[in-house]
Amino acid sequence: MNNLGWTALLEAVVLSDGGERHQRIVQLLLDHGADPAIADKDGVTPLQHARNRGFKQIERMLLVAEARTRPATQLDLAMISAAREGDATSVKSLLAQGASVHAAASNGVTALIAAAYGDHVQIAELLIAAGADVNVQDNTKQSAYLIPTADGSLAFLKLALRSGADVHRTDSYNGTGLIRAADRGHADIIAELLKTDIKVNHVNRLGWTALLEAIILGDGGPRHTEVVRLLIAHGADVNLADGEGTTPLAHARRRGFAEIAKMIEMAGGR
């Protein structure tokens, strides 16, 4: 806390413009343990400052963070279970009874994350309308945004993107949604994500980009070939090697993916 009585979190809200840069700073601070309950010297909390300044997205982040400091109630847990099972009637009833969309079970799963695991789009719409945040991650770093990128649910992904998904969020491997979709051959997911400002050449903890992942973990068939085509068309670096110095072209040749190798060569791959 500085001489003004502000923590880094308070400063990020009080001196913020409420825009995307400050939203990311607030989220980083919260992810690394910033206490949302610490008020300034006048007793005003970060949440109250965000509300006073009309910063809706930051307010939502702080609400989620505060909810995670409180244990989930039986109503909350019942709603998480209902969302997982696809029971829209029960979810509506539990919301009406006061169940919190921000509450999480001991594994960090919220009702929205549970709905994402089950691909229950209708329930997700209900929860988002009630204030659920698509960027909240569970203990394994899965979120309502990241889950459909791997599972291949285009409808759920579109809902998440419309609802403020941060496409720069990563999973436990530091992998983006683009990388997750690439290794599974979800060309439609790739195409949707490429409409955003997601980083095409992001490198995950394994040292792989989405292009490398599509080749290394792909089967070389039509789906993965289309993924490679889309990635190259949107600026994927065809010469960005993995951590051992092996390029996408070398991987494609090694695996016998002739069509993919030809595409990479035509794009200047070496």
Q: Nearest-angstrom radius of gyration?
A: 21 Å
Low-pLDDT runs: none
Helix content: 40-55%
Order of helices and strands: HHHHHHHHHHHHHHHH
Please tally the β strands and state the result: 0
For the residues shown, what is the average pLDDT? 94
Could you tell me how far the N terminus lies from the C terminus, measured between alpha carbons in angstroms?
Answer: 53 Å
Give the number of helices.
16
Strand content: under 5%
Shape: globular
Describe the largest sheet. none
What structural category arises from helix and sheet content? mainly alpha
Q: What report would you give on this structure?
A:
The structure is a single chain. This protein is an all-alpha fold and 270 residues long. It is built from 16 helices and no strands. The protein has helices spanning 8-14, 20-31, 46-53, 56-67, 74-85, 88-96, 111-117, 121-129, 146-151, 154-162, 177-184, 187-193, 210-216, 222-233, 248-254, 258-266. The relative contact order is 0.07. The mean pLDDT is 94.
Characteristics:
mainly alpha, 16 helices, 270 residues
What can be said about this structure in brief?
By secondary structure, the chain is mainly α.
